[in-house]
Design brief:
two-stranded antiparallel ribbon, 7-stranded parallel sheet, binds zinc ion, alpha/beta
């Protein structure tokens, strides 16, 4: 089996409306293209900050600029008008776990993807609010990033931890610590293993400045050695990005000795052979 769970039905622009993108026709287009790539398990995981309910969790200016849509209408659309698995990409905001739990509670998710896009008020992956303009050292950014990823795994809100080394997204355009990076990965891998959460292998990094899979080979090897389940996704925002360069992902999984991937339904996980 091949999966693509961490998928967005629209680009990240604020004017990409539900009226245009949350339609049975668009879902069907995604389904058709996924099938062409051999992906039978297709889910969607819209960014939580696109929904007005997210402002009960966090009031960051970036979120205030995007939070327009109704969360229940999204759930109802995916459940009633598509055959896709229902997920959400719910940022981990330290200290706001109870508020995020309230948002997630009582909604019919197949899976919940946890992401770390911010450290406090500054962003790891957007030019606006960029952490790399604060003058904080690469060592400190990387250490805090992986500590936060570890916390996100331990908080118990998530089925999958997304793009687990997103901190590298800018590649050579941002500072990076020297030497063997496994010292940064260690606390995160320990948290993944202890919490039993699945870790995402995402091909999205291949279309970002870093031009690498998330996670790196070294981190994937550590995750695999620790026995963590792997969830395979592209983080597509268009049909062109669905299952993007999955051949690279499958080679990486093979190198790491991973033979099964995680499949989700009603927040229950099972493992299926890859392919
Ligand atoms: Zn993300
Ligand atoms: Zn995403």
């Amino acid at each position: 089996m091949l999966t693509d769970y961490h998928v967005h039905l629209r680009p990240d622009e604020a004017d990409a409306t539900p009226e245009r993108h949350f339609t049975p026709g668009n879902a069907e287009r995604y389904r058709t293209v996924a099938e062409e790539h051999g992906v039978s398990e297709l889910g969607v995981a819209e960014h939580v900050y696109r929904f007005t309910a997210a402002l009960d969790v966090w009031q960051h200016p970036l979120w205030r600029g995007f939070a327009r849509d109704d969360l229940d209408a999204y759930c109802e659309f995916v459940r009633e008008e598509t055959d896709l698995r229902l997920g959400i990409e719910a940022d981990f905001i330290p200290g706001r776990e109870d508020k995020m739990a309230n948002l997630l509670e009582g909604r019919p998710w197949d899976f919940v993807v946890g992401s770390v896009h911010f450290l406090q008020e500054v962003s790891l992956d957007t030019e606006d609010f960029s952490i790399w303009r604060t003058g904080v050292s690469a060592e400190r950014v990387w250490r805090r990033y992986f500590e936060t990823i570890a916390e996100s795994a331990r908080c118990g809100l998530y089925d999958v931890i997304a793009h687990p080394d997103l901190v590298k997204v800018w590649g050579d355009r941002a500072p990076k610590p020297d030497g063997d990076l496994r010292r940064y990965y260690e606390p995160a891998v320990e948290a993944f293993a202890e919490s039993g959460v699945a870790v995402e292998l995402s091909t999205a990094g291949l279309r970002k400045p870093v031009s690498e899979l998330y996670p790196s080979d070294a981190l994937l090897a550590m995750v695999a050695d620790a026995g963590c389940p792997i969830a395979l996704s592209s983080d597509a925002h268009t049909t062109e990005q669905l299952a993007y360069r999955y051949e690279d992902a499958l080679e990486a999984l093979d190198r790491a000795g991973v033979r099964e991937i995680a499949v989700f339904e009603n927040r229950e996980r099972r493992m299926e052979p890859i392919g």
